[in-house]
Amino acid sequence: MALMSPLFKKRAVSLGIRYNFLRLPTREKRVSTPASASLTPTGKSYRWNRERYSKTRRFFDIWFFVWRFLFGRWLLTQSWSYWGGMTDAKRAARRRAQAIWIRETFLDLGPTFIKLGQLFSTRADLFPSEYVEELSKLQDRVPAFSYELVTKIIYEDFGRPIPELFRSFDPIPMAAASLGQVHKAQLLSGEEVVVKVQRPGLRQLFDIDLAILKGIAQYFQNHPKWGQGRDWMGIYDECCRILYEEIDYLNEGRNADTFRRNFRDREWACVPRVYWRYTSRRVLTLEYLPGIKISHYEALEAAGLDRKRLAELGAKAYLYQVLNDGFFHADPHPGNIAVSPNGQLIFYDFGMMGRIQPVTRDKLLKTFLSIAQRDAEQVVQCLVELGALVPTGDLGPVRRSIQYLLDNFMNQSFETQSVAQISDDLYEIAYDQPFRFPATFTFVMRAFSTLEGVGKGLDKDFNFMQVAQPFATELMTNGNLPDPSNGSLFSELSRQAAQVGSSAIGLPRRLEEVLDKLENGDLRLRVRSSESDRILRRLSNINLGLNYVVLIGSFSLAATILFVNQYLLLAGVAAALAVWFGILYWRLMLKLDKYEKMF
């Protein structure tokens, strides 16, 4: 691609704007010097920033973080741990502080946890909103590794030194992140390229960390509270696949080629070319395509580019990826999209991509129609078929939540609907419910929300849903589905006939399932009685109180015996434990008394 015109440079430089070059998988921070291998740009040292890693040390660091996290979660519910008593505001402040601590600790723990944190920031169905919000801020502000290591990696992968492969190679990286860093270079044939080099020892670190994380995932899977309705082992396997794919630069190169082919007939999009002769599992060489970062709004204005058109092109590009190609960019944050001098969108970073299989697309079509018809029962069934909802014994609360969402969502005008608002409402319902949204779904929703935010920055009147309406109509047309927006009598009769036909066809199967459950003894009748629940809860608390009394007596007796025999230190410990359980018993009695007054 031609270099930037003098007029383009002059307008941008007049505002002091730097151009956005090819970036790494996450939000990078440019470095001006080849920083040492142990200090960040802020001078902070990281133990993980090395070529070799200790399994024992990593095991201790990771599990120490887990136990501190669990202890913090436990303290969150203990009223005695709040100075002046527990209030909603104090609990919210403590959750926020814990979320910030998690983000900072993930950065301290290194590349594996930085990438996991960025993945978890898409899972608002699994984690509280404070955690998701803080993890979405997670950035790779880590030091670059030395140029000597870069030369070593390139020689190991290609068997030739840098001067035999490149006419020039800038030893100072353009950008550095947890997974690697980017250097500008020029091939012997004269083409300008960027060379992405993986951080030394990264695969070894992933192997060690993921082996430890497997044990943690098994712990959460078997946890009586957090394991219920959550497929933690499935989430672990999914994260492993994504992480290993992202550090395989051959896979990223193939993704870039596929993405480039999909956009070859769209002149408004530009994707860098892969130079396969200079690419390996740890080194990726791409065409050098400079541009202005899409979120640098003043620079775009100075270059004379139409911001409203760019907002529409960004949404259009992603809708093409999801609805037409079934192959989409899973991390389209502003650092991965730039704009060329002639107004083309330039896409970077293809390590994390999503795919939508044809069978999944058909199920999504069915779900889309059910939502359009406001049929919560059918939506629940579709979500079960998609694997996004665990078929527990009682899905009544889930169905009612979905019906509430449908009633509120469908009553709004199409033009006023926001992707971010819709996804927030959906995740609000999903949290603490038996949902397990696939990664593809969460990636799509996050991407839509991100692009909507960028679009509003470019054009304050931008509405992603309004741009998506023609594509939604086309989607239903291609799926041979009746358009619910058409209020004609024929359309309504067609919809009802299709619904009756579908119910009639599915009735024998549903009857057979009920009979099978009855025959196998799996059919359960659930009856709730508030009076029975109250009595059982009271008996449980009384039993707990008896345990406290036994412990108080035991520690009091032990303290007395130890004191008589001059074991003063041990006697003091036993007495302190007796006092502690006495306080717990007193609080339990107050709780029982308060509970009895409520009924």
From TrEMBL:
Organism domain of life: Bacteria
Regions crossing the membrane: 544-563, 569-588
GO CC annotation terms, alphabetical: membrane
CDD domains found in the cross-reference section: ABC1_ADCK3-like (cd05121)
GO molecular-function terms, A-Z: ATP binding; protein kinase activity
Residue span(s) of domain Protein kinase: 147-536
Keyword ATP-binding: no
Gene Ontology terms describing biological process: membrane lipid biosynthetic process; regulation of response to reactive oxygen species
Keywords carried by this UniProt record: Membrane, Transmembrane, Transmembrane helix
Keyword Transmembrane helix: yes
InterPro entries found in the cross-reference section: ABC1_dom, Kinase-like_dom_sf, Prot_kinase_dom, UbiB_kinase
Family named by the database record: Belongs to the protein kinase superfamily. ADCK protein kinase family.
Record-given protein name: Tlr2242 protein
Organism: Thermosynechococcus vestitus (strain NIES-2133 / IAM M-273 / BP-1)
